[in-house]
Specification:
heterodimer; A: alpha+beta; Alpha-Beta Plaits; five-stranded antiparallel beta sheet
Chain lengths: 196, 412
């Protein structure tokens, strides 16, 4: 998979982060993501991310579940193997509703979990590159994609001027990364840590 | 935050257009009442029962819907919710109607009970009860004395505790609170809200719908019934709050209430529509499954009889529509769509009340017509009149409430 160079700017306060995000975006840089220790309200809007379509997928999975349940049960109980249950009609819709409901929920839930994992590139043995370990503790880590034309020193200076307490340059796997932390990190990922 | 000054229109003034509308609706309602009194009210026993039943389901519906506004306040208070603070006064204003509609309800119900109208309540007929094992077994609960005392207690305590909640709310208009007064204030709110919820559970959550509504079909019983009535009235109550919030926003009030609050109100309407359906279906399916005559009698006339259309319309309006229309996030944040849905849901649950009450009174004739809508107009007119008056009597926002800031910065 493709490796890419990123400039990483670390902020220790969300009140500094928001204006910085705005300025970086207006300056024309492409922010890949901002890693935060906790969910920050409004950050998705500041980053200009589009609404997730996960719920649309969920709706489709749910409808699939409904159709599967109703289709399956009605085929079995009215055509394939009709049974007389307490004198009820073969097509006994009320009795099927709980199962239909359960299957709808099951399909929607399981489908959405797998879709979510796929979108986040999470799977067994897939590794994620950590741009900064303190992103899980107290640091807001902004990751900016570099192109051929990006002047890295300029960008670092720009971030520092906008309140970054730490900046560095990292090369990371962009897509699915099946490698190993110990080998890949040392051999193929050139990592310069430059304290701001 | 006490030092911060808030910039908002504090005082609601009742527009003359609103006054005209409320008087017009009350006028139409009274006209319908008088015409109904001389046509239906002087007819056969069944027509008389339809006349009383129509007034009865309307007044019970509106009392419980307005009371649901107080339930909304108390439930959010107990949950330490802050998001409702910017428009809480709207719910308070709606809840001021509980004593008004409550007294109308009591008058109507006591009239039915004291004139021994056994066309509506079969258990009022001593001869029938004596000859009927089932009714005899229920006579400890279904008798005039208990009915009267419990109804008065119910409406009285609803009004009293609601009045206390509103009085506590007014204290937050006076002066800024420091940490300790704020704490004490929240605790005082919590205690009263807790008392209200307990009483609400004992009445709306269990006994009252059995007594007022379920006893119309005196032989039949369902333990789901009260919850079902609760869900029905609560979702209508939230819809009514939403309508008033949107109305005030359109008039330029409630500056701090925005789409975030509307979104959460929409979630309430969506969630409790589903909850209503869940209870409706649980009640229906168990009866359908066991298929015992003394239980299915309730659904016989409704599902297969003349009330079939209304029965299914009820499910379409109250389940299918909110499920499909309100599912999307953008729908819950859209003022036009939310207005439409709130009106639709209020209408739907009014129909729901109609089909809870009337098939028990008039088994063969669906009476839904001009008289029902006339009486509905009367109650809507009264509602607009009194809510407008209540809104104008207080500032629209309790500015020193400790939770107000949480509501202003609310983000969904």
């Amino acid at each position: 998979m493709a490796k890419k160079k990123f400039v990483v700017g670390c902020f220790d306060n969300e009140e500094v982060l928001f204006p910085a995000v705005k300025k970086v975006r207006t300056a024309g840089y492409k922010i890949r993501d901002v890693y935060t220790p906790f969910p920050v309200h409004g950050l998705d809007h500041a980053l200009g991310l589009r609404e997730t379509s996960l719920h649309t997928a969920g709706f489709i999975y749910g409808i699939t579940g409904t159709a599967t349940a109703l289709g399956g049960i009605s085929w079995i109980l009215t055509y394939d193997w009709p049974l007389n249950i307490g004198g009820k009609p073969h097509f006994a819709l009320p009795a099927w509703i709980p199962i239909t409901f359960e299957l709808t929920v099951l399909f929607a839930a399981v489908g959405m979990v797998y879709t979510f994992c796929y979108l986040c590139q999470l799977a067994p043995f897939v590794k994620k590159h950590h741009f900064h370990p303190r992103a899980t503790d107290d640091l807001f880590v902004m990751v900016i994609e570099c192109t051929d034309k990006t002047n890295i020193d300029d960008l670092k200076g720009f971030l520092t001027n906008n309140g970054a307490v730490e900046t560095d340059v990292q090369v990371a796997e962009e897509g699915w990364w099946w490698g190993r932390y110990d080998k890949d990190d040392e051999k193929t990922l050139e990592k310069e840590i430059v304290a701001a | 935050m006490a030092e911060q000054t808030l910039d908002f229109k504090e005082q609601f003034e009742v527009p003359s257009k609103m006054k005209t509308w409320s008087y017009a609706l009350i006028g139409i309602g009274l006209l319908a009442f008088i015409i109904g009194l001389f046509t239906k009210g002087t007819g056969t026993n069944e027509e008389k029962a339809i006349f009383m039943g129509t007034i009865m389901y309307n007044t019970i519906f509106w009392t419980m819907v307005c009371n649901a506004a107080m339930f909304f306040i108390c439930a959010t208070t107990l949950a330490m919710g802050g998001w409702q603070m910017t428009f809480r006064r709207v719910a308070e204003a709606i809840s001021t109607l509980v004593p008004v509609f409550g007294i109308i309800t009591l008058v109507v119900l006591f009239y039915i009970v004291f004139t021994g109208n056994h066309e509506i309540y079969h258990w009022l007929d001593a001869k029938q009860v004596a000859a009927d094992e089932i009714l005899k077994g229920k006579s400890g609960f279904l008798n005039v004395k208990f009915f009267v005392i419990w109804s008065i207690l119910t409406v009285g305590l609803w009004s009293l505790l609601g009045w206390r909640m509103r009085k506590i709310s007014s204290e937050a208009d006076l002066e800024p609170m420091d940490f300790n007064t704020g704490n004490a204030y929240v605790w005082k709110n919590t205690v009263t809200a807790g008392l209200f919820i307990v009483w609400f559970a004992l009445t709306v959550g269990s006994t009252l719908p059995w007594l007022w509504l379920m006893s119309i079909d005196a032989h039949w019983y369902s333990t789901m019934y009260s919850w079902y009535v609760f869900a029905s009235t609560f979702v209508s109550g939230v819809a009514l709050i939403t309508l008033w919030v949107i109305y005030l926003k359109n008039k330029g009030y409630l500056e701090y209430t925005n789409q975030e609050h509307l979104h959460d109100l929409g979630k309430f309407i969506f969630a409790f529509s589903i909850f209503w359906t869940y209870l409706w279906f649980s009640q229906y399916m168990l009866i359908w499954y066991s298929n015992q005559p003394e239980e299915t009698v309730y659904f016989k006339g409704r599902v297969q009889g003349p009330y079939k259309g209304i029965f299914f319309l009820n499910i379409i309006i109250n389940f299918i529509c909110p499920l499909l229309i309100l599912m999307k996030r953008s729908a819950k944040r859209n003022y036009t769509l939310m207005t439409f849905m709130a009106v639709l849901i209020l209408f739907g649950h009014w129909i729901d009340f109609y089909q809870m009450v009337m098939p028990g009174i008039s088994k063969d004739h669906v009476s839904l017509g001009w008289f029902d809508f006339g009486i509905l107009a009367l109650f809507i007119g009264l509602m607009i009149h009194f809510v407008g008056k209540a809104l104008a009597s207080k500032p629209l926002i309790a500015k020193y409430n400790p939770f107000l800031k949480e509501s202003i910065v609310h983000h969904t």
